[in-house]
Design a protein that fits this description.
81 residues, mainly alpha, 2 helices
Length: 81
């Protein structure tokens, strides 16, 4: 079963939003600057998280398909013998 990309990416984006907001606030930046940087960081992290989950899903599905094909080949070779 593939991983769901949206919930994982949203969680990553929320963490980045609050993390960057906290860093900006502790640095003494204005609220508007903190908001802009946090929104940009969350958008970039959402996109990166989505791509990362999709890449992991592709690898997992490829491994699953390869194992199924290997299993079928073993079954067919055992039946022929």
């Amino acid at each position: 079963m593939p991983l769901q990309a949206r919930p994982i990416a949203v969680g990553i984006a929320v963490l980045f939003f609050f993390g960057i907001s906290l860093v900006g606030w502790l640095s003494g930046l204005s609220p508007f600057t903190c908001c802009k940087r946090a929104m940009l960081a969350s958008a970039v992290s959402y996109a990166a998280g989505t791509l990362a989950v999709k890449a992991v899903n592709a690898v997992l599905m490829s491994a699953l398909i390869d194992s199924q094909v290997r299993r079928e080949k073993e079954k067919n070779s055992a039946r022929r013998d």
